[in-house]
Amino acid sequence: MRQRTIKDTLRIDGIGIHTGERSEILLHPAEENTGIVFYRNRTLIQAVPENVVGTFLSTDLGSGSEVVKTVEHLLATLHLLGVTNMVVEVVGGCEIPIMDGSAYVFYKEMKDLVVEQDEEVDPVSPEETFRVRSGEAWIEVSPCDCLEITYEGVFKGYMGEQRFTFRGNAKDVVLARTFCFDEDIEFIRSRGLGKGGSLDNTLVIGRNGVYNREGLRYEDEPARHKVLDLIGDLYLLGAPFKGRVVSHRGGHTLNYMAVREIYKRSKSGLRSLRS
Ligand code: 3BW
Ligand code: ZN
Q: What are the CA-CA distances from residue 25 to residues 9, 22, 209, 231, 235 (Å)?
């Protein structure tokens, strides 16, 4: 497939779900073989596995003393749109804005700006089937001339078991919001996280229903959002992924374990990004 960027700089601002701070991101077009690069306080942070500095309730990148938190929903949008070259300048707070908790704003603002470039990119694809696991959670990665991502969740309360499979249609996942359970908020806040979290950007699930007045966007919204997160985390490979992934109760930490394993085993991708 051809490499892609966007044709104009796009500015988006909002608050970070974890820091609660306002930030503005400037999405800049970039030349071939740039990859996805975050830029903050004169520091460049390439979106590659080596730069992952955190996976607890978000995926965070860092280099030197600079950190950019919560990159997963923006990366998912870029992955879905096949945008391979971009500089994401982060001004103000150190976190990507959460917007409505989904990838919708990023997707809507960017989709008509995407342009193809002259050079090709080789997708990253696994050569054989393997699993990574942590406790009862696992992720299975297998070769396929497709992009197929399944999430199997066993959620608390009435959300119960959910399974959703993405087969290439971005519209199935871009609107799914991040979520949490009411009983977990105290713990999350005690860890200094979720300071910007609210009903405006998070589906908050209680014992018998959701707190959000507008309700669910899909009955399986949490499973769809988990797929969105996985699409974003997989883009840390530095090139579009081609293959089949099934995540059973995974999260950012397990996603990252799968990414490192795919990366280690793969021979393709944006070779120029590797030293
Ligand atoms: C809660 C949970 C997460 C909040 C604090 C108070 C309120 C609302 C939110 C984010 C992976 C899916 C969910 N990552 C912030 C974050 C938060 C995500 C983690 C998850 O989407 O599983 O991309 O803060 S968990 Cl009222
Ligand atoms: Zn998410």
A: 10, 10, 34, 20, 19
